[in-house]
Design brief:
alpha+beta
Length: 210
């Protein structure tokens, strides 16, 4: 398999973490849609990453679809099967994490616009979404090592990825308000799949004040 994408994309990192958790071998082709001569648009008409190309030549794009595909390649599932009681709670937590990532990306892109074009109201709306989501997660978290049942799942992957992306692209002292959530993330972040996929430059952010 080949995975196309760049190291700082949270959507690409999500797939990379899943591939490592499932011990699936793949070649990582580091390309961004804006890179000269990249192959992204040839594989994905939407021109977005991540893109997964299988050994048989099949192509999947969008992280949710790619995760669904690779999760079926091994018996150990990150997403519980349809009908299992854990499935909807796992998907709910992952949906929350995805929404946090989307809000953080939207905030980042708006904040990078020239000052005369920047909408502080839009930035504030994204920050409010993130704050509400963190409060919801902190209240719903039961203080266990894993969010659903007693094993690592897409619930943990999705939320932990989102929290680390906040640290990377929207660093602020959220841990002071949500210490239980911070303790949970500290446990998940020690997993090899997270350490091995840390975006370049994120180490400096994590070493600084939270």
């Amino acid at each position: 398999m080949k995975l196309y994408g760049h190291a700082t994309s949270p959507y690409v990192r999500k797939v990379r973490i899943a591939l490592r958790e499932k011990n699936l071998r793949f070649e990582w082709v580091q390309e961004a849609p804006a890179d000269p001569g990249n192959h992204i648009a040839d594989l994905n008409p939407l021109g977005k990453v991540p893109v997964l190309e299988t050994d048989e030549g099949r192509v999947f794009f969008d992280s949710a679809l790619i995760l669904e595909y690779i999760d079926g390649l091994t018996p150990e599932r990150l997403i519980p099967a349809t009908g299992q009681p854990e499935r909807l709670p796992v998907l709910l937590w992952n949906t929350l994490g995805s929404g946090i990532v989307d809000a953080t990306v939207a905030r980042l892109l708006e904040d990078r616009r020239p000052a005369e074009q920047k909408s502080q109201a839009l930035i504030a709306r994204q920050e409010e979404k993130i704050a509400r989501s963190l409060a919801w997660a902190d209240k719903a978290d039961k203080g266990r090592a894993y969010l659903v049942a007693d094993r690592f799942s897409l619930a943990d992957l999705g939320l932990a990825l989102a929290l680390e992306y906040i640290d990377f692209r929207y660093p602020h002292p959220w841990r002071e308000r949500h210490p239980r959530l911070a303790r949970w993330l500290a446990g998940i972040s020690t997993r090899g799949s997270f350490a091995e996929t840390m975006p370049p430059g994120m180490e400096k952010v994590l070493d600084g004040p939270h």
